[in-house]
Amino acid sequence: MRIIVFAVLSFFIIGLDSQAMQPACMSTRTPCPYFNMLVNHMIKTGKIAVDTQKLAAQELVNYSYSWFGIDKSLMERLANGRADSNGDVDIAGLLNPFQFPAHKGSLARVDAQTPDEFAEVDSKRLDILNNDQNYSTTLTVHGNSNKYISYKQLKKYQVEYCWARSDMSNWKDWVPAKAEVHLLWALFGAYKIKDSSGIEYIPFELVYNFLRDAVLPENFHANTDNPATLCSVTCAILTE
Question: What CATH number is given for 2-239 in this structure?
Answer without folding.
Answer: 1.10.489
